Amino acid sequence: MYCTRNVSDSVVWVGASDRRLALFENLFPIPRGVSYNSYLILDEKTALLDTTDASVTRQYLENVSHSLNGKPLDYLIINHMEPDHCANIAELLLRYPHLTLVGNAKTFAFVSQFYDLDLTGRTLTVKEGDTLCLGSHTLHFFLAPMVHWPEVMVTYEETEQILFSADAFGSFGALNGHLFADEVNFDRDWLDDARRYYCNIVGKYGIQVQAALKKLSALSIRTICPLHGPVWRENLKYLLSKYDLWSRYVPEDNAVAIFYASMYGDTENAANILAAGLAEGGIKNIALYDVSVTDVSVLIAEAFRCSHLVFAAPTYNNGVYPAMYNFLHDMGALSLQNRTIGLIENGTWGPVSAKQMQQLFSEMKQMNVLEPVVTIKSSVKEDSLAALCALKDRILASCTR
Ligand SMILES: Cc1cc2nc3c(=O)[nH]c(=O)nc-3n(C[C@H](O)[C@H](O)[C@H](O)COP(=O)(O)O)c2cc1C
Fold first, then answer.
1. Cα separations (Å) of 91 from 11, 84, 168?
2. Over the stretch 108-118, which tens digit does the pLDDT of each residue have?
3. Residue having the nearest C-alpha atom to atom 6 of ligand 1
4. 342 with 370: CB under 8 angstroms?
5. CATH of domain 5-247
6. In angstroms, what is the span from residue 304 Cα to ligand 1's centroid?
7. Lining residues, ligand 1, CB within 6 Å
8. 253: which DSSP letter?
């Protein structure tokens, strides 16, 4: 049975949610599930904006068919050629013989890489700024390269002022009946997943996101329809300002996150001592994570959120403890920058983890490593306690400034 929601009188959400998938991109845990959004515009001509993942094909096709109510499907706009959005192209071509695929030159290169389809006479290639009139709705196409993938474009509908934003402004999380961000407590229940989605999926491409935001700032937008998560029709500034901060790598909160790795508990002890000292010094809402038991996507999102990041790691086979190394490597790969850093190392015979972490930070941009770098020899003793205290004072001075 169909399950749809109206975005407006003539725009229908025909997507579906998956609450069974454990790992998005086979990487990121999604305990709250994920939605695959697709939108149908009903006018003299009908147009679908993207399709869905194969996991929800049955529901999706039923939604499309019901919403068309016997009308032909004229256009499929392919904003993004990633398989979680384009898995139903072949199925739609078979079911709707007059369907024309709309994409840019890169889109169609990707279509033929992924699929073996005879598209003769069934494609319309658009360029930046091109328009497509459906009747009372007119679509405008804007390229947004690397706002996840190189072929990405966003589509703006001028009459209703809707931006179909592809993966931009999306979030992990299934849609539990609610389609609109104003129907849920977004700040409480969704923001962490929206941030985790952005930072891990699109975080690397801050420059490209900034370019897209600049381009879109010329448009009057009333509604944002992303390919995952809720639709935005109120308080768009809230979301746009988050994207502006994230894509400029500006911390969202003046806050401290402490990330530690520990096998036998002594590095953990140092992290706890530091956290307690910071709390006594007046720092609120300290975040403290064991990197071995916290998914790296959560760690990355917290590193994007907080201004002050402390990394405490044992030396392991003359290197940085592997879980911490992986996290730092990921952070570098995602271009995180512009943070204040504290470092704590541990080692029994030759501690080198701080030096190696410092090397990793020197390869990132604008990472300000505070002195002192704390060295622990196996367990915290008076000398390392004094160094921890000095680091705490430096963080307090910098964080409350
Ligand atoms: C497999 C393994 C490799 C290690 N390699 C080093 C090393 O290369 N250099 C060093 O100084 N300590 C090394 N250590 C010792 C730990 O870094 C040290 O015991 C540290 O205090 C552990 O901190 P924790 O109590 O937080 O787990 C190693 C320990 C293990 C288990």
1. 22, 14, 26
2. 999 999 999 99
3. 316
4. yes
5. 3.60.15.10
6. 29
7. 262-268, 314-318, 346-351, 378
8. E
Predicted confidence band at 401 (pLDDT cuts at 50, 70, 90)?
low
Distance CA 273, CA 287 (A): 14
d(CA 354, ligand 1 centre) in Å: 13
- For the segment 292-307, what is each residue's pLDDT rounded down to a tens digit? 999 999 999 999 999 9
**Residue 129 vs residues 126, 140, 153, 156: alpha-carbon distances, Å:** 8, 6, 11, 10
Q: Quote the ligand 1 centre to 377 CA distance (angstroms).
A: 9
> What pLDDT shows up at residue 106?
97
Nearest to 298 by CA among 270, 271, 259, 265: 259
Range(s) for CATH 3.60.15.10 in the chain? 5-247
Positions of CATH 3.40.50.360 in the chain: 257-396
H-helix or E-strand containing 84? helix 83-86
What is d(CA 249, CA 268) in angstroms, rounded to the nearest whole number?
28
Query: What spacing in Å lies between the alpha carbon of 267 and ligand 1's midpoint?
Result: 10
Structure tokens at 361: 């930070």
Q: Is residue 104 within 8 Å of 151, Cβ to Cβ?
A: yes
93-106 pLDDT, tens per residue?
999 999 999 999 99
Q: Which residue out of 259, 263, 349, 355 has the highest number of ligand 1 atoms within 8 Å of its CB and is therefore the one to mutate?
A: 263
**CATH number for the segment(s) 257-396:** 3.40.50.360
Distance 262 CA to ligand 1 centre (A): 9
What number is the ipTM of this complex?
0.99
Percent residues over pLDDT 90 in the chain: 99
